[in-house]
Amino acid sequence: MKYFVIISTLLLCFSVSARTESTFITDGVKTEIKKIGECFYLLTAGKEKQQFKCIDDNLESDVIIQDFNFDGYKDIAITNSLGMVNNIFYVFLYDHVNAAFKELKIADSKTPTSACGDLYNLVVQLDSLSLVSSCRSGPVWYYDTYRYNAQDELWLYKTTEYQIQNSEVDTFPL
Predict the structure, then answer these.
(1) Would you state the torsion angle of the CA atoms of residues 15, 18, 21, 23, taken in this order, to the nearest 10 degrees?
(2) Worst-scoring range by mean pLDDT, 10-24, 42-56, 84-98, 120-134?
(3) Which residues are within 8 A (CB) of 8 and not within 5 positions of it... i.e. 6 or more apart?
(4) Quick one: pLDDT at residue 73?
């Protein structure tokens, strides 16, 4: 029984170790993100609490504050671990005209389709002003590169497949 309590306590500590709260300043206004239950909320002074995303509480989640659309304003990403290597990203872009956050949507396009389907393991590439989403399925890594058009819509720019030929390969360059 003693070991059960110790192990349970350790598991509980590790399961909540991800950064699920964040505070930052946008347009001179203090903004907080808090996880309450399974949902993430945006708390801004003088405004109502805004619900962002509800995710499976048993999976590891995180909050990332970064500029995802290259406009100079901080945006919010909520990540959720889906297995050993794939982390899905839910990105909320700051609209400085309306002083609000809106979920990032990929422009409606019939072709081509992305290899990953959603945004996974998202990396911001400042040199090319693009976002790279990568996911793994079995022995294959897929990379989807997205860019914004003149209307600030996110479009799939290119997709790449990297097949692991040798089991000793342990790094996967973007």
Answers:
(1) 160
(2) 10-24
(3) none
(4) 92
